[in-house]
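User: Just a sanity check before I run the rest of the batch. Below are the C-alpha cells for the first item. I only need the designed sequence back.
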C-alpha cells in the first residue's frame, strides 16, 4: 500500500469515527431533552397535588369548588337564555300581529316555526351567512357584546388565602355566585333569532329589514320580560311565555 493509499484510508476511518460520535451525541441530547421534559411534568403534577392538598384542608376540594362555579354558571346562563328569548319571541309576535294583522293562532304558528327556519344549523356564522344570501339582510348588528366581569386580582388573592386556610363554605357560595354572574352575562347571539325571523318571512329585503328593526324597537320599549310577555298577550292574544322558557 502506497503512502497515498494509507493516508486516504486513515482519513476515511477518521470521518467514520467523527460521524459515529456525532450520532451518539445527538442520541444523548434527545435522551437528556426527554429527561428534562419528564422531570418538568412530574414537578408540575407534584405542585398541583400539593396545591389541591392545601386547598382541601377543611374537607372541601378544588373539584367541589369548581362544581359550585359550574352550577352557578349553568343556572345564570339558563336564566339569561329565558330572558332574551322571552323578549325576542314576545316582540316578534307583536310585530307579526302589527304587520300582518294575524290572529293568535297565526302568531303562535310563526313563533313556533322560527327554530325550524335554521334547519338545525348551530354555527352562528353560517346562520348569518345563509340569511344574508337568501334574504339580503345582514343581521350581525343585532348582537350585543359579552359583558366583561373584572375580578382577576380578587381571584388571585382568594387563591393565595385558600392555600393557607383551605376552602371554606363561604368560598363555595362566592364561587357559585361568580359562576352565576358569568352565566348571566355570557354572550347571546340575538342575530341568530333575527336570522330565523328573516328566513321565515317570504318578503322582500326592505320589508324584512323593516320587520326586524321594529322587533328591536319593541324590545327596547320594555324593561322586564314579564312586561313584554303581558303586552304580547294583550295585543296579540297569544301567550309565548311557554315557548320562551321551555316549560312543558
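Assistant: Here's the designed sequence for the first item:
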Amino acid at each position: 500500500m502506497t503512502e497515498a493509499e494509507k493516508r486516504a484510508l486513515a482519513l476515511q476511518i477518521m470521518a467514520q469515527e467523527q460521524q459515529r460520535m456525532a450520532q451518539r451525541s445527538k442520541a444523548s441530547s434527545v435522551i437528556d431533552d426527554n429527561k428534562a421534559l419528564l422531570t418538568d411534568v412530574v414537578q408540575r403534577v407534584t405542585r398541583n397535588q400539593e396545591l389541591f392538598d392545601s386547598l382541601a384542608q377543611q374537607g372541601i376540594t378544588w373539584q367541589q369548588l369548581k362544581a359550585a362555579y359550574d352550577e352557578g354558571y349553568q343556572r345564570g346562563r339558563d336564566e339569561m337564555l329565558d330572558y332574551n328569548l322571552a323578549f325576542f319571541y314576545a316582540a316578534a309576535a307583536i310585530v307579526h300581529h302589527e304587520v300582518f294583522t294575524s290572529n293568535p293562532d297565526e302568531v303562535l304558528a310563526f313563533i313556533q316555526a322560527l327554530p325550524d327556519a335554521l334547519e338545525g344549523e348551530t354555527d352562528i356564522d353560517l346562520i348569518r351567512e345563509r340569511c344574508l344570501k337568501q334574504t339580503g339582510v345582514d343581521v350581525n348588528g343585532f348582537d350585543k357584546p359579552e359583558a366583561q366581569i373584572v375580578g382577576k386580582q380578587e381571584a388571585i388573592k382568594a387563591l393565595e388565602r385558600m392555600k393557607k386556610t383551605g376552602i371554606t363554605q363561604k368560598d363555595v357560595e362566592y364561587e357559585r355566585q361568580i359562576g352565576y354572574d358569568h352565566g348571566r352575562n355570557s354572550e347571546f347571539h340575538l342575530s341568530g333569532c333575527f336570522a330565523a325571523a328573516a328566513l321565515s318571512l317570504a318578503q322582500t329585503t326592505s320589508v324584512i329589514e323593516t320587520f326586524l328593526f321594529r322587533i328591536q324597537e319593541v324590545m327596547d320599549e320594555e324593561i322586564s320580560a314579564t312586561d313584554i310577555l303581558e303586552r304580547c298577550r294583550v295585543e296579540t292574544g297569544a301567550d309565548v311565555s311557554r315557548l320562551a322558557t321551555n316549560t312543558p
